[in-house]
């Protein structure tokens, strides 16, 4: 039996309860408190799945009770429960050895010790979400690589203290990475921290995370190209990879990712300002099965990368927002080749014109979401009425005109722009001045 935002009411329903779920609602008060949950869990021995992110005051005591009372617990989500500490994780490692899926996002008291105990005590773990853990360092990440051999999904977005030392070392790093110059002087000297003094993580060549399919390392700003070399060597079958905000990555990391080849289906490299056309082009050319690509806010990229991505036969989603060098040439090429596109984000690409937009609308018939915010050409009279409402907090004066189109409005925008193009041509034929209209009339005057 399943209980959503409610607790079992009697002894029989407690015994047969298998799924307990409490949602997070920022408006309404929590459906249950920690004390109420702790009083019921001892009578629920058959719980298999527990999503407790909606219990804001969840404590280690209640987590320990759950671990001791439900030996078959397989799925657990305690994300955002800020009172959870290493003590609760130790109980899970000791009692809930059947866990397959675990989400411990935004637990600000979790340290390397608790996470290390956890991964060592959960041999069946296949999905681990550990986003936004400010106290976790490379020490715990090394344990995940060592003991998480069955992981299929691993997310550690926003772990700001994680460095390259948490990832497998490969001999090629010494040969390929440029050597640092030993320049004398106080500017180049600094005391090494204990994290920087960690020995390399050397794993046997047979020790691979062959089951790992989804890896999210976004917003880990201390990672460099060396970490990516180790990742693709010891997890060669990754299908979904997110590296957004890893600002130290360069083209060498892109060449490393390209070795994933036909395995890679989705990649997010948004915000990697040090990546150039060469790296992004190599990635697109080596991974022909890509379906979702995010190259947003990489100022060095130009049309050539989008041209290569447009030629991918399975491309469904492309985010190329904030590319100042992108022009209508990319838009025309997308219109001629990327017929499978369903989502396209080209916001803040200021050099795009209505000609490029009209070409894409004409040929990309499967589009269901189109983002063109912040493009001066889209300020044209009559276009705004087809866009979604401006979201709360969006400042058009600073961020540009909000232009996001969905489903039927995309088709309506196409018809409007085609009508306006017809009016312009007719006006030229009749040698009269063409005034833009904001309605659907074809009248020339």
How would you characterize the overall build of this protein?
With 445 residues, this protein is of the alpha/beta class. The protein contains 15 helices and 15 strands. It has a 15-stranded mixed beta sheet with strand order 1-2-3-4-5-6-7-8-9-10-11-12-13-14-15. Helix 12 (328-337) packs parallel to helix 13. The longest helix has 24 residues, at 407-430. Residues 173-188 have low confidence and may be disordered.
| Count of DSSP H/I helices | 15
Radius of gyration: 26 Å
Number of distinct beta strands: 15
Low-confidence segments, given as residue ranges, are 173-188
Helix content: 25-40%
Strand content: 5-15%
Averaging pLDDT over every residue, what do you get?
A: 91
The computed structural class is alpha/beta
Shape: globular
Q: In order across it, which strands form the biggest sheet?
A: 1-2-3-4-5-6-7-8-9-10-11-12-13-14-15
Largest sheet geometry: 15 strands, mixed
Q: Would you list the SSEs in sequence order as H and E?
A: EHEHEHEHEHEHEHEHEHEHEHEHEHEHEH
In short:
The chain has helices at residues 11-16, 34-40, 60-69, 86-95, 112-121, 138-147, 172-176, 225-234, 251-257, 277-286, 303-310, 328-337, 354-363, 396-399, 407-430, and strands spanning 2-4, 19-21, 49-51, 75-77, 101-103, 127-129, 153-155, 214-216, 240-242, 266-268, 292-294, 317-319, 343-345, 369-371, 404-406. With 445 residues, the chain is of the alpha/beta class.
